[in-house]
Design goal:
By secondary structure, the chain is an all-alpha fold. The chain contains nine helices and no strands. Helix 8 runs antiparallel to helix 9.
């Protein structure tokens, strides 16, 4: 029983660390969020903080995973099984719009996504699974819209899904270099560009 209680306390402390770390990074930025500062935010030493994670890289990976969980709560799941294209568009654009309010997390995501190209990096599996998951659900939702004649079928749904992901990831880099870039509006424009125009716009032949 004591061992079970100790485990539960450890899980709870780990969750507290991740939630507070999200706040610190969103406020101070990726570069400003040192292990020392993150540890102080939860009343631990640096060694005490890393007791709950194998490394700094694993900590940052789990911070991103926690961010995904919180985004689902606030903006709807991306992806949920059976999501239609309208709901997917709303949730996806909502998350991208929110990202402009948390530049530190965008910096962390972009930096870690590059480092995670190394198969040995702790974030490698996270990014592979996350990317595959997003593309799979986008592909399903976009294919449904194509079948209904609401979306252009000149490009297959699998390719479109990858394009949406590439645009979102690339926009984050552009936005970090130039904060005037409206990421959400650009993704909205892409959705609109791919939407099939009404057969009859009200004009007379």
């Amino acid at each position: 029983m004591a061992q079970r209680g100790s485990y539960a306390k450890g899980v709870a402390k780990r969750e507290e660390i991740l939630e507070r770390a999200l706040e610190v990074i969103a406020r101070e930025g990726y570069r400003g969020a040192s292990i020392k500062e993150l540890a102080e935010a939860v009343g631990l030493s640096q060694a005490g903080l890393l007791h709950y994670f194998d490394s700094k890289e694993e900590l940052f990976t789990e911070i991103l995973r926690k961010r995904d969980e919180i985004d689902v709560v606030h903006y709807g799941p991306v992806p949920p099984a059976g999501t239609d294209a309208v709901d997917l568009r709303s949730a996806y654009v909502g998350i991208i719009r929110h990202n402009s309010d948390v530049p530190g997390l965008v910096q962390l995501f972009s930096r870690l996504s590059v480092d995670a190209a190394d198969p040995e990096h702790p974030a490698h599996k996270y990014f592979i699974e996350r990317n595959d998951n997003i593309r799979r659900v986008f592909q399903t939702a976009l294919a449904q819209q194509q079948a209904a004649g609401e979306l252009t079928d000149r490009v297959d749904a699998a390719t479109l899904a990858r394009v949406f992901q590439a645009v979102a990831d690339g926009l984050q880099i552009q936005w970090m270099l130039d904060p005037s870039v409206d990421m959400a509006a650009t993704v909205e424009a892409l959705f609109e560009a791919l939407t099939t125009a009404p057969a009859n716009n009200g004009s007379t032949p």
